[in-house]
Amino acid sequence: MKVHQLEPKLKALRLGGMLESLEIRLEQAQRGELGYLTFLEMLLEDEITRRAQKALSRRLVRAHFEEVKTLADFDFSYNPKIPAATIRDLATCRFVERKESVLIYGPAGTGKSHVAQALGYAACQRGYDVLYTKAPRLFADLGGGHADGTWESRLRRYLQPDLLIIDDFGLRELGVQQAEDLYELICGRYQRASTIVVSNRAPQDWYPLFPNPVLAEGALDRLVNSSHHVLMLGKSYRPMRRPDRLSQLAGNTALAEMAPPPSAPSQNATSHLLDQHTQDQLDQGVVTMVQMG
Questions:
Q1: Rounded Cα–Cα distance for residues 71 and 78 (Å)
Q2: DSSP secondary structure of 92-107
Q3: Rounded to whole angstroms, how far apart are CA atoms 256 and 280?
Q4: Residues near 158 by Cβ (< 8 Å), separated by ≥ 6?
Q5: What is the mean pLDDT of the chain?
Q6: Cβ atoms within 10 Å of 203's Cβ, excluding its own
Q7: Do the bridges between strand 130-134 and strand 163-169 make them parallel or antiparallel, or are there none, so unpaired?
């Protein structure tokens, strides 16, 4: 039976992905490399892998990351004070399983957004639904819901994901409506789903951002005390990414690759060096010449 004869049957069973590797597996089986059960097992593994990759791609699209970031891309050596062990432990996503949250804060340029999106990517790999947004965009979206009567449906969009990432929180003080929206969001996700909040301000500095201290206490007491705290101290990495700096680094690398390797000294040069060394020793009385009569 030809492979193309199996195509409608595989597609009817929603196993069309097997067609991508079926020819290769058949060739392996015909060469005697695969037994019957191994042949079937590998075809099924191919289909599982294909479906997992397709599902991951869909989750990444829904997450709306600014960029796909991973911890493998993060230079922990640039700022040694960054708690690498804590961040790598969070990348196991046990905090998502336990419905805990994470607060990432510190000076600008230390990689907070990179780490937050990398944790989101790790969660997507483990099958969790993730949504990334920036605080100004979040408040604008919910504010629009008040204007057109769609606030509840818009709020549900931020309540549903297993992991919600709110970046750039605390850039400015909150308006009355924004503070109330944030309170509803935090209360709605508290102990039901995980949230990552990224800010240049420390959590204790978030309270004055609320116009209503009672609302601030109610929201932040839930969030701050159910979260892992990740303080990222150090110098900004952004100057290293300036176009002129990157061009300079590329130029230096090219020059280093073009430079000829150091050559070994010639025989004449070696002899000259030895003669000079002997003469220096004679001048210092280190070498004594004895004439044999």
A1: 14
A2: T-HHHHTT-EEEEE-S
A3: 37
A4: 131, 133, 138, 142, 164, 185, 189
A5: 86
A6: 18
A7: parallel
181, 87 contact by CB (below 8 A): no
pLDDT for 13-63, tens place per residue?
A: 888 778 888 888 888 888 888 788 888 888 888 888 888 999 999 999 999
Residue type, 226: S
Q: Spell out the alpha helix ranges (H) of the chain.
A: 3-12, 19-30, 36-63, 84-90, 94-97, 112-125, 135-148, 151-159, 176-189, 213-224, 243-258, 267-283
Residue extents of the structural domains in the chain? 3-63, 71-239
User: What single string gives the DSSP state of each residue in 263-291?
Assistant: PPPPHHHHHHHHHHHHHHHHHTT-S----
Query: How distant, in Å, are the alpha carbons of 103, 112, 249, 255 from that of 193?
Result: 14, 21, 44, 52
Query: What confidence tens digit (pLDDT) does each residue in 56-98 have?
Result: 999 999 999 999 999 999 999 999 999 999 999 999 999 999 9
Residues 220-245: what's their mean pLDDT?
90
Specify the amino acid at residue 115: V
pTM: 0.77
> Regarding the domain with residue range 71-239, which homologous superfamily does it belong to in the CATH classification?
P-loop containing nucleotide triphosphate hydrolases (3.40.50.300)
Residue with tokens 């951002």: 209
Q: In what order do the strands lie in the sheet with 101-105?
A: 130-134, 163-169, 194-199, 101-105, 227-231
Q: Which residue has the tokens 């340029």?
A: 109
